[in-house]
Amino acid sequence: MSDVEIIIVGGGIAGASAAYELAIDHKVLLLEMEDQAGYHSTGRSAALFTENYGNSIIRKLAKISKSFLESPPDGFSEYPLLSKRGALFIARSDQLDVLNSELQTIQSMGGEVQKIEGDELLQYIPHLNREYAVAGIYDPHSKDIDVSGLHQGFLKEAKLRGGSILMGSRVLRLRPLADGWLVETEEEEFSCKILINAAGAWAEEIGVLAGAKKIALSPMKRTAFLFDVPEDWVVQNWPIAIDMEEKFYFKPDSGKLLGSPADETPVLPQDARPDDFDIAMGIERIQAALNFEIRHLSHKWAGLRSFVPDRTPVAGFDPVVKNFFWLAGQGGYGIKTSPALAVCCGALIREGCFPKFIEEFGLSAEMLSPKR
Ligand SMILES: Cc1cc2nc3c(=O)[nH]c(=O)nc-3n(C[C@H](O)[C@H](O)[C@H](O)COP(=O)(O)OP(=O)(O)OC[C@H]3O[C@@H](n4cnc5c(N)ncnc54)[C@H](O)[C@@H]3O)c2cc1C
């Protein structure tokens, strides 16, 4: 049986970033049930960084994460983690009230965006259907994230800092010890002082294994697909287009467009698969917004976005079960917020409070603590 200070369950972006943060001064072991890191939600995202999506806590966590994503430490990744994209939130005439209210929200938080009207929309997306879209909000600061670069950077640096990562190790049982945990996988047993639950859609199940009360985590399925565009469309510099009420989005990806019906279907934790109905819904909505008939999909997939009721990530010690730390409920924002959430996790484990610079953004440990 090996003994470490911290065991992290789950090797997605949450577990990897926590391992990176804590391996600097703790003996850390990360256990991932799959053979491939990022097999679940982390490897299935739309890879977007924007400060203008999610509740105000999410927006602040994204803002805090930006400096790390813009200039990670030397050697962290071979290529820049962020690249130019832009985001255009588009509205039909019946969505103008939603547009105006979102514009106010963004501006009240200091967001630098522009209101776009009429044919101006075509400067950003020349093939937008003008009978469909009448106005928009353009955010020039939204970026594409190199998700693999970020995730692999966290894992590689965690190992360089002395952390251990075991793939193909599913945590099956947890037994409380006088001062920590006995963690059982099929093959081995480990003991640790602190257990970090970063199991994504399975985080509630890990909580149950530890005897913790549920946090009402709900995994929601979201579908995505890649489709071909006419040869004479040059799409690579288009911004992501997001429906004002988030009923669909599409964005350039390797010369094609990545589309999604922005579905949210509650499901059990699982290896999510796309459903034909959701794909058809996405195609119908995107076709209405673009002057174009989607004929060929080159890839389709689905992933889980796991939310607690207030849609705020949970990062904190369980109030009852000792030495059990939740890092869960990142919903549709877990990639862009991972640097900040990892810092919060590290500070709570080391000092029991947030660093001053995080509090200066108006965030408190209470906001992210597990609630029932
Ligand atoms: C279609 C889609 C689009 C998205 N777009 C964006 C976006 O543009 N920007 C953004 O920031 N976020 C986006 N997200 C959200 C983001 O992908 C998630 O918030 C993030 O990946 C969650 O990371 P995680 O590490 O918590 O979960 P995961 O990546 O699912 O990792 C959890 C890991 O825990 C492991 N595990 C579970 N149980 C056990 C066990 N018993 N033992 C060992 N290991 C276990 C799993 O195998 C898994 O690898 C999107 C998500 C989807 C599905």
List keywords for this structure.
single chain; 372 residues; alpha/beta; FAD/NAD(P)-binding domain; D-Amino Acid Oxidase, Chain A, domain 2; 2 domains; six-stranded mixed beta sheet; 10 helices; 22 strands; 27% helix; 27% strand; binds flavin-adenine dinucleotide
Please outline the helices and strands.
Elements: E1 2-3, E2 6-9, H1 13-22, E3 28-31, E4 48-49, H2 56-70, E5 82-84, E6 87-91, H3 96-108, E7 114-117, H4 121-124, E8 135-139, E9 143-145, H5 147-160, E10 164-166, E11 171-177, E12 180-185, E13 189-192, E14 194-197, H6 203-210, E15 218-227, E16 240-243, E17 249-253, E18 256-260, E19 265-266, H7 276-289, E20 297-307, E21 314-317, E22 324-328, H8 338-350, H9 356-359, H10 365-368
Parallel strand pairs: 1-13, 2-3, 2-14, 3-10, 6-16, 14-22
Antiparallel strand pairs: 4-9, 5-9, 6-8, 7-8, 11-12, 12-13, 15-18, 15-19, 15-20, 16-17, 17-18, 21-22
The structure holds flavin-adenine dinucleotide.
Structure at a glance:
Helices cover 27% and strands 27% of the residues.
The overall average pLDDT, rounded, is 97
The shape, in one word, is globular
Total number of domains? 2
- Which ligands occur here? flavin-adenine dinucleotide
Give the low-pLDDT segments. none
- Multimeric state: single chain
Question: How many β strands by DSSP?
Answer: 22
The CATH level-2 architecture of the largest domain is identified as 3-Layer(bba) Sandwich
How far do the termini sit from each other?
34 Å
CATH superfamily of the largest domain: FAD/NAD(P)-binding domain
Structural class: alpha/beta
- Determine and state the CATH class of the largest domain: Alpha Beta
**Major sheet description:** 9 strands, mixed
Which value, in Å, is the CA radius of gyration?
Answer: 21 Å
What's the tally of helices?
Answer: 10
Using the coordinates shown, work out and report the CATH topology of the largest domain.
FAD/NAD(P)-binding domain
Report the helical percentage: 25-40%
